Amino acid sequence: MNIFVCVKQVPDTETKVTPTADGNYIETSSIKWVMNPYDEIAVEQALSVKAANSDSTITVVRVGGVKDTESLRTAMAMGADESFLVQTDDILDPYATAKAIKGAIEKSGKTPDIILTGWKAIDDDNVQVPQILSHMMDLPHVSVVMGFEQNGDTITLKREVEGGTTEIYDVTGGCVVGCQKGLNTPRYPSLPGLMKAKKKPLTTLSLDDVGVSSADQKVKYSNFELPPVKPEGKKFETDDSNRADIVKEVVGLLRNEAKVI
Amino acid sequence: MSKILILAEAAKDNVKNVTFEILGKSAAHNCDVAIFNELPANAAADLAKYGAENIHVIKGDNLDKYSPEGYAHALKEFVAANGYDYVFSGATSMAKDLLPRVSAMFDSGMATDVTNFTFDGDNFSGTRPMFAGKVLCKVELTGSAPHFVTVRPNALGLPDSPAAKAGSVQDAAGNAGTIRAAIKEIIKGASEKLDLTEANVIVSGGRAMKEEANFKILDEMADVLGATVGASRAAVDSGFAPHSMQVGQTGKTVSPTLYIACGISGAIQHLAGMRTSKVIVAINTDPDAPIFTKADYGIVGDLFDIVPILTEELKAIM
Question: Is residue A113 domain-resident?
């Protein structure tokens, strides 16, 4: 099987984010970058698909800056076989990103049997690339996947939707699968894995190589700013003697001042 | 004046509230509503009241339940045939899955999960959270029409004085095309409550809940308030609650009218996920917990002392 995984490098969730002075993006110099947590789940799923299907290879694709070689090496240290980086410092929109990934997949010379992605990236939260990519690749997609079971040629996928409801899909043939937390527990790369990853092939492509131009940007992001600061609220200390009165007071404020109950 | 289609989804006897929010905000344009399969009983009258010109019910083979390909194919044909400039929807599970695929069919752009928007003539400009709400940015759609937008539920609010339109209901024949990934089964969630992403009131528990069983005191308060119960990542990682209840950057981003945080210290990734709540109440033993910097009303104390009293007080007035 030709297994593809798309990964992205994002600021760690504990990162404080500051807009740049011109407001065109965020300050990136002092950020701790990690692999998007949902992409780690996609890599882990790729490894279990490979384990269950002999003669499989895992190819990892990323669109981003030079820093992004790190997440590609991590994926290869976890067990992926080779990587493609479409290198750009531009902030691409979902359409251009999906088109670049498609271009890289074509450059690999392999036809994907399955493409695994995180269901979203925790930086831009767009939730678009897996779906756009699947249309461009003429494949179906199932996203927010929490269960994955392969029986011969058929894959059964559990998709989480709102209200705790689960949709169960059967897919035969290729598919794009957007992975959600709960599907598996991603492994940590081992030390020998990290050593091996250094020798695995990593091909760098340009946007030109994958046929992406400025005409592929359909969305413009600007005016990055911090959300408005909330005025300081009211804080009440409680002890055994005043607890009931304080709670009563807060309930009164919710009703008469905030008018939310 | 733009021609706008708003994709609605059923919620009990009506459509989801976010449809009315979008209608109210788009009153200066020609707005139609589309829904798959069936229009809930009370929807036609309310959609007309909030300004829907036409209401299209898209029906056809293999459209009785959702599939990304089938719905995308049918919606693409419907939008192309009617020449819409914009397609809006609430940022629901279905729309977030479906609209990017449809936007790709038109090679056009999409703005996800906007919390506000304006039109300059026919040009859309939205505000959206990035990095789970740690920053806001402006989003514009520079490709060709139709453009696609999803709107966060509860963010716009309902208009004070909506301008009614005809709201004439008609069926539209939908063509699902070829479906390769089809739903074979839907397992309904046990909860009758609104999803966290749509809830008007949320009661959330953190690590200080100590164990899963203790969430019942939050359930009791939630029942009084008609609230949905959430959890912090610390509570989910400790096994007190499932991931579907997680509020934060790697969980759900929420904007209820009232958010009550119980025993949640307020890690940056949690604050990012709930800071757009209109009113925040925090209960925590640590007076220096970061959650208090975002709280409108902070109660320093043990949640196991405070929550039962709070539930009784709420019961008395609700």
Answer: yes
Same domain, B53 and B121: yes
Q: Which of B142, B134, B130, B170 is nearest to B33 (CA)?
A: B170
Tokens found for residue B210:
């100590």
Residues A251 and A188 in one domain: no
Sort strands B279-284 and B258-262 into parallel, antiparallel or unpaired: parallel
Model pLDDT for residues B203-259, shown as the tens digit of each residue: 999 999 999 999 999 999 999 999 999 999 999 999 999 999 999 998 999 999 999
User: Does the beta carbon of B257 lie under 8 angstroms from any beta carbon of chain A?
Assistant: yes
Residue B194 counted as domain residue: no
Quote the domain boundaries for residue B216: 201-317
In a domain, A221, yes or no: no
Instruction: Give the C-alpha separation, A234 to B307, whole Å.
Output: 18
Q: What is the CA radius of gyration of chain A?
A: 22
Residue ranges making up the domain that contains A243: 230-261
| Separation in Å, CA of A130 to nearest CA in chain B | 9
User: Tens digits of per-residue pLDDT, B82-104?
Assistant: 999 999 999 999 999 999 999 99
Helix (H/G/I), strand (E/B), else coil: A247: helix
Of A16, A171, A180, the CB nearest to B268: A16
Q: Does this complex have an ipTM over 0.90?
A: yes
Total-model pTM? 0.94
Q: Does A106 lie in the same domain as A69?
A: yes
> Number of folded domains in chain B?
2
What whole-number distance in Å separates Cα of residue A257 and Cα of residue B2? 40
Q: How far is CA A244 from the centre of its chain?
A: 46
Residues in A closer than 8 angstroms to B113, CB to CB, are 125, 127
Q: Is residue B180 part of a domain?
A: no
Test A14 with B292 for CB contact under 8 angstroms.
no
- The residue with tokens 């934060």 is B248
Residues of B in contact with A224 (CB under 8 A): 130, 135-137
Give the residue on B whose Cα is nearest the Cα of A258.
B279
In a domain, B143, yes or no: yes
In a domain, B30, yes or no: yes
Q: Which DSSP symbol is given to B53?
A: S
Q: With contact defined as beta carbons under 8 Å apart, do A164 and B194 qualify?
A: no
Q: A237 in a domain, yes or no?
A: yes
According to DSSP, residue B292 is labeled H
Instruction: Say which amino acid occupies B198.
Output: E
Q: How close, in Å, is residue B81 to chain A by CA atoms? A: 20
- Give the position of tokens 């009153």: B27
Residues A242 and A159 in one domain: no
B97 touches chain A (CB under 8 A): yes
Judged by CB atoms closer than 8 Å, whether chains meet at A247 and B306 is answered as yes
d(CA B159, CA B138): 23
Burial class (CB in 10 A: 0-12, 13-18, 19+), A203: middle
